[in-house]
Amino acid sequence: MSDVTTAPRAAPRAPAMAMRVKVALILFALFAVLPPVAVALGDPFMVLIATRILAYAIAAMALDLILGFGAMVSFGHAAYLGFGTYAVAILSSYGVNDLLLQMLGAVVVSAAFALVTGAISLRTRGVYFIMITLAFGQMAFFFFISLSAYGGDDGYGLSSRSTIFGSDVLENDMTLYYVTLGFLIALFAACHRIVGSRFGRVLTGIRENRERMEAVGFPPFRYQLTAFVISACITSLAGVLLANQAEFVSPAFMSWHRSGELIVMVVFGGIGTLTGAIGGAVVALLLEEWLGALTHHWPLLFGLILVLMVLFSPRGITGLLERTGLWRARK
């Protein structure tokens, strides 16, 4: 049985995966032309919002890697987002401003934390796995609240954005946007390669029938733990980019609410598609912006939309497009 209370899904066929890659390429092309459009419309703030969306799309895609393909519902995944943001703040306070070094620091800390907590969490299954990942996430959250040197609960403002080989090119919002887009494209290609590899097929097989995969010689624990660590590392990269976008870090980045938002993004787009996670992040954050401009009670409207999506299209936007014939791979 699957570790989560969802009906088993067949592994995606090659035509379906090819179609999803085409849709992802279309999304990336639209992202690429957005800054010139924002400049033409005289709305440069749109670029900052879009950068935030791209960073969250990376985090949602990383979560989908373990949720959609490994049936691991991590309710503490925002902790790795927080590790990425605080890697920027802490290292910059010691004079380490290079983006790649900050990303390396974020990945090392996230990998270590995920290796330990994942090894413990994966001894459980189902709702117990959800709750124990939530507990570990909250432990990290309260640890950073206690760091008074970095603002504690109030957060910590960055004096400047990260540098790239000593250059401060990321101070330009458009450059930061395209760097974030570049990371999204590269990480999507990496995740797509992982899913299509032998490792990915084994991970999907464990999701569908754990006992059978174990019987034929594939240790579920080892594969799931590896996927868990990979997902954590990718999420931490999103945190580094978010810190640069906001020029501010706070424990709020790693709260359980944020983990819930990442899950909502994946559900919105379609679990187990990667492309859907990217689209889900775009839709969820745009809805947050638009509904927030309409009313202070926007979470009520957002929740209603989510309920309707789950009721009428359990596979999210991906399922909706497939049902309407707008996204249908040739058999």
From TrEMBL:
<keyword id="KW-1003">Cell membrane</keyword>
<dbReference type="Pfam" id="PF02653">
    <property type="entry name" value="BPD_transp_2"/>
</dbReference>
<keyword id="KW-0812">Transmembrane</keyword>
<feature type="transmembrane region" description="Helical">
    <location>
        <begin position="52"/>
        <end position="71"/>
    </location>
</feature>
<dbReference type="GO" id="GO:0005886">
    <property type="term" value="C:plasma membrane"/>
</dbReference>
<dbReference type="InterPro" id="IPR043428">
    <property type="entry name" value="LivM-like"/>
</dbReference>
<keyword id="KW-0472">Membrane</keyword>
<keyword id="KW-1133">Transmembrane helix</keyword>
<protein>
    <submittedName>
        <fullName>Branched-chain amino acid ABC transporter permease</fullName>
    </submittedName>
</protein>
<dbReference type="GO" id="GO:0015658">
    <property type="term" value="F:branched-chain amino acid transmembrane transporter activity"/>
</dbReference>
<feature type="transmembrane region" description="Helical">
    <location>
        <begin position="78"/>
        <end position="94"/>
    </location>
</feature>
<feature type="transmembrane region" description="Helical">
    <location>
        <begin position="262"/>
        <end position="286"/>
    </location>
</feature>
<feature type="transmembrane region" description="Helical">
    <location>
        <begin position="176"/>
        <end position="200"/>
    </location>
</feature>
<feature type="transmembrane region" description="Helical">
    <location>
        <begin position="298"/>
        <end position="317"/>
    </location>
</feature>
<dbReference type="InterPro" id="IPR001851">
    <property type="entry name" value="ABC_transp_permease"/>
</dbReference>
<feature type="transmembrane region" description="Helical">
    <location>
        <begin position="127"/>
        <end position="150"/>
    </location>
</feature>
<feature type="transmembrane region" description="Helical">
    <location>
        <begin position="100"/>
        <end position="120"/>
    </location>
</feature>
